[in-house]
Structure formats: structure tokens, C-alpha cells
Specification:
The protein contains six helices and three strands; from the N terminus they run E-E-E-H-H-H-H-H-H. It has 186 residues and is mostly helical. It starts with a strand and ends with a helix. Keywords: Membrane, Transmembrane, Transmembrane helix.
């Protein structure tokens, strides 16, 4: 196979011929010397046909010849990289190891986030008495369930209190609210 390309218009008329290393050389592509310092790209020579005749392609105009030149350059690059294998494809095991390491790191991060959030949620919903110290000596708080929150419930104390008179009842309620104020400030 020779490194020769012919460009035709829609009427099958010749527009240009590109050949490596020179026009009319007829050297097969595999026999052409390649220089690795420039990326094994072959040099091409392009010959444009004369235009200006009736129904000639506008690609033959002087200002539009760059289109065919660009096509020749792209083809030269493709020919130079036909046997090219990217380094990551060569090192498939290295690529596989990197991907597996990233997946492992992501899994560890997800597990640690889930563990932390589940631990916090369990502390919210399953409260333990050992988690918060309880004040032992509080004579105004008769119920141990409320000691942990430092709250006095007046309705509970009113159930147990049996006042003799209305004045004593008002005095007892005022004392409970003062005690509640005192506990909340402490």
C-alpha cells in the first residue's frame, strides 16, 4: 500500500494528489523511513490541479487550498499512530489497581460517614443514663425521671399535695413556681 491520496470533486474530477515522500515515488508505506523524534509522521507533497474551468470546485481556489492541506495533515497523523498504543492500555494492571484503590477509598469514606451518622442517631433515640451525670441531692425534685432533665413538673406535685385552705393552696403553687425558677437558673 502506497502513501498516496487523491482528492476528487463530486463530478469525479481530480482536485489534488498527495504522496509521501514525493510525487511519483511509488514507495510502499511500510518501506518509508520514519523519524521517531518527530512522531513517525511522514512528509507529504501535494499537487493541486489547475482550476478556473466551467463547474470547477471552489477548493481549487488559492484561498481555499488549506482545506485539502488540513485533510492531508490529519491523514498523516492517523497513519503515524496506527500502531500506537497508549501507555495506560499497556499497563492494564496498573490502571486496574488505581481504579480498585479509588473504589476502596470511596467505600471506606462511605462506611465511616454512615457509622458516624448511625452512632449519632442511636444516641439521640436510645438515650442511656450513663451518658449524662445526674445531680444526686435535689430535694425539690421528687421524681428521678425528671432529675436528669432538671425540670419540675407542677402538675405532678399538685397531685400529691392536699392543701387545707385556699390560701395554703396558693402559697404551695407559688412555692413550686419559685422552685421551678430556681432549678431553671441553676
Amino acid at each position: 500500500m502506497q502513501a498516496r491520496y487523491e482528492f476528487l470533486d463530486i463530478n469525479k474530477r481530480l482536485l489534488a494528489v498527495a504522496e509521501s515522500p514525493a510525487l511519483g515515488a511509488g514507495i510502499p508505506m511500510m518501506s518509508l523511513p520514519r523519524r521517531s523524534n518527530i512522531g513517525n509522521i511522514l512528509p507529504y507533497t501535494v499537487h493541486f490541479e489547475r482550476g478556473g474551468y466551467n463547474l470547477s470546485s471552489s477548493l481549487l481556489k488559492q484561498e481555499l487550498r488549506w482545506i485539502i492541506g488540513s485533510a492531508v495533515q490529519v491523514r498523516a497523523l492517523q497513519d503515524a499512530h496506527t500502531d500506537f498504543v497508549p501507555p495506560f492500555i499497556k499497563d492494564r494492571y496498573l490502571l486496574l489497581a488505581i481504579v480498585l484503590a479509588l473504589i476502596l477509598i470511596a467505600a471506606v469514606l462511605v462506611i465511616s460517614v454512615l457509622t458516624g451518622s448511625l452512632r449519632s442517631a442511636s444516641r439521640i433515640f436510645f438515650y442511656r443514663d450513663k451518658a449524662r451525670p445526674v445531680k444526686a441531692s435535689m430535694p425539690l425534685l421528687p421524681y428521678s425521671n425528671h432529675e436528669r432533665y432538671n425540670v419540675v413538673l407542677p402538675s405532678r406535685q399538685l397531685e400529691n399535695a392536699v392543701p387545707a385552705t385556699t390560701a395554703q393552696h396558693v402559697e404551695k403553687v407559688l412555692m413550686m413556681y419559685l422552685a421551678l425558677d430556681f432549678v431553671c437558673m441553676a
